[in-house]
Amino acid sequence: MEKREVLAFDNITFRRDGREILRGVDWTINEGEKWVLLGLNGSGKSTLLGMVPVFTHPTSGELRVFKKTFGKYPWEKIKSKVGFVSSTMYSFYNTLNYYSLEEIVISGKYSTIGIYQDLETEDYIIARQLIKDFNLEYLKDGTFLNQSQGEQRRTLIARAFMNNPELMILDEPCASLDLKSREYLLKTLNDKYEKTNKPLVYVTHSIEEIFPAISHVAIMESGKIIYKGRKEEIISEDILSEVYNCKIKLNWENNRPWSRIIW
Question: pTM to 2 decimals?
Fold first, then answer.
């Protein structure tokens, strides 16, 4: 049976100040697929995925989400079905600073900053479970302002899960996390996605963050997707050595790759 298309970039280009940042990107994510978008800093990863919440929009080409085309459909209806966490959200941090952890997480139900709708008991139960899942219970009496960068990132990820989104996009979620916090977050995400059919796009420049539930990998370089496919096909020593222009040795443990450079 053919899988349902969830997210599609069809010959997408993006230019800023006369410079071409994205160059003819073709990439489709289907229902049930969990993707990592891998690439060096500056390769265009955040620019590309920022088109879904309309932080940027294509200069040319077609963007489709849930088979609806950007520019031809009320996009607020699309955004309400997508969980999105990115460093591009830093501009909202001043607004969040004086809200409590629970207020921020539960506001994710309606994708608002603050709570303006009536909430049900079930909403609080879901929010408190998410706070527990992401190991944030010790922060429940504090405000966003007093959290570390890593804690703030985990708070926003928990918030993104609050409305049970049909598509989740996480842009470098492990940035600012120490090793222990990174591994806890990756385990939490793996637990959530290994038994669900909902799609995920996880952006990183670190091969070690490709956790077991990830099924597919795309590699971006200089504004183009240069490789895409099943994880086991794309994460190979030959491909990675070519992409990073150095000799890379891989070791797989529990369906997760670890890499080192051979000098």
Answer: 0.92
19: which strand partners?
16
Question: What is the C-alpha to C-alpha distance for residues 113 and 200, in angstroms, rounded to an integer?
Answer: 23
**Residue 24 in tokens:** 């003819």
What is the distance between the alpha carbons of residues 171 and 86, in angstroms, rounded to a whole number?
Answer: 5
Sheet holding 82-85, edge to edge: 82-85, 167-171, 200-204, 34-39, 216-221, 224-230
Taking only the tens place, the pLDDT of each residue in 160-176 is: 999 999 999 999 999 87
> Can you tell me the distance from the alpha carbon of 42 to that of 21, in angstroms, rounded to the nearest whole number?
9
- What domains, with CATH codes, occur in the chain? 1-81+167-263 (3.40.50.300), 90-165 (no CATH)
Residues sharing a CB contact under 8 Å with residue 77, sequence separation 6 or more, in sequence order: 68
Torsion angles phi and psi, residue 70, rounded to 5: -60, 135
3-state class (DSSP) for residue 184? helix
Nearest to 24 by CA among 223, 219, 221, 201: 223
Q: How crowded is the C-beta side of 177, counted as CA atoms within 13 Å?
A: 20
Tell me the CA end-to-end span of the chain in Å, nearest whole number.
46
pLDDT digits (tens, 9 = 90+) for 97-112: 888 898 889 988 877 6
SS3 178: coil
